[in-house]
Design brief:
There is one protein chain. This protein is mostly helical and 358 residues long. The chain has ten helices and no strands. The termini are far apart.
Length: 358
């Protein structure tokens, strides 16, 4: 048992009779620990608008400044539309914005690479997609504008194939820069690195699944189009066999390679590590469908919203099938085969219907 002079079982000893407890002083009452708040890896937690604790604060600062200045300059160019300076303001804004978003993605990749507790330690797929969009737009302005001046129709099948070749190269370059380069994921982990014979077998698996996915997609799109506005065609009219071949190159080869590397090999794998297989498939499908409707334009907001809704919902079954076959086969070749055959079948159907009607 304890007596009146014994230490209090729950805390400090009681003062002896006749004594006085020491007066509190600011020095003794002040907290003695000033250690920064750290995360599960023992590293400082990073504030969104703070440079403190960052490995590459200059890169992070360039990301913020470049993104804000580039976006503002592009906005100003829209207000100046019709003037001689508008196109130069737009181009300058794109250059600065491209540098800004790339710096932001690079900074994020560097910071996440230092945190082994994270299930995925590369740049966010959403941020990386913004980088792809901005760089693709910049490249198309630089490459296609001179070609248009020389007489190439920018809406022709050949110009579309050139555009998709550029975008595919940018998809691959961005994945290399913000995922493979920092060590977040290897190309093998994204479904590459298999022998040629196995890659061909996986392509065949994807191609064999394509007719079923096409039927589901067409039925759903037909139902939605009857209720809302039909979606626009994503490729220019073939016109002849040469145009058809150019469109097949675009839709069945270039687009599947770039998009499957990004949306399945990179994004779906990253989310599967963080959330599990099923949520990653759904998330990847939504991301994939959304990426295909961000460029939908229409005369009015209502019609544009309807077209975007049909396009988005119509692509969801294909996105889910692509994510499922990718994770089930652990091979990006399977999803490339499905994607390429899915696009090719629809393109050939449209070409046959138009030729038959003509």
């Amino acid at each position: 048992m304890t007596g009146p002079l014994d230490p209090d079982p729950g805390g400090d000893p009681l003062p002896a009779p006749g004594s006085h407890a020491p007066e509190p002083t600011p020095e003794t009452d002040a907290p003695t620990s000033t250690a920064p708040v750290v995360d599960a890896d023992g590293l400082p937690r990073l504030g969104i608008l703070s440079l403190e604790g960052r490995s590459v604060p200059a890169l992070y600062l360039v990301g913020w400044i470049g993104s804000l200045m580039g976006g503002s300059t592009i906005l100003v160019s829209f207000f100046a539309a019709g003037s001689a300076a508008a196109r130069w303001l737009f181009l300058a804004g794109l250059v600065v914005l491209a540098l800004g978003v790339f710096a932001a993605a690079g900074s994020q990749a560097v910071e996440r690479a230092k945190r082994p507790s994270l299930p995925f330690r590369g740049a966010s797929p959403v941020l990386a997609f913004v980088v792809v969009v901005v760089f693709s737009l910049l490249a198309l302005v630089i490459v296609l504008a001179p070609m248009s001046a020389l007489g190439l129709d920018p809406s022709s099948p050949v110009a579309t194939a050139i555009s998709l070749a550029i975008t595919t190269a940018i998809f691959l370059a961005v994945v290399q820069a913000v995922v493979v380069g920092p060590g977040a994921m290897t190309w093998r982990e994204m479904g590459f690195g298999v022998p040629a014979r196995e890659a061909l077998a996986q392509l065949g698996v994807g191609i064999a699944l394509a007719p079923l996915v096409v039927v589901v997609g067409l039925v759903l799109t037909a139902i939605l189009s009857a209720l809302l506005a039909p979606p626009p065609t994503t490729l220019p009219a073939s016109g002849n066999v040469l145009g058809l071949l150019a469109n097949l190159l675009s839709a069945a080869v270039l687009a599947p390679i770039g998009e499957e590397v990004f949306f399945r090999g990179y994004a779906t794998t990253a989310w599967a590590r963080a959330t599990g297989t099923r949520p990653a498939i759904v998330r990847g499908a939504v991301f994939f469908a959304f990426a295909h409707v961000v460029t939908v334009f229409s005369a009015t907001f209502t019609s544009g919203l309807q077209v975007a809704a049909v396009e988005f919902l119509g692509l969801l079954p294909a996105g889910i099938a692509l994510g499922w076959v990718f994770l089930a086969r652990r091979s990006v070749w399977a999803s490339i085969g499905l994607h390429g055959a899915y696009n090719a079948i629809q393109l050939l159907l449209v070409f046959a219907i138009l030729r038959g009607g003509g």
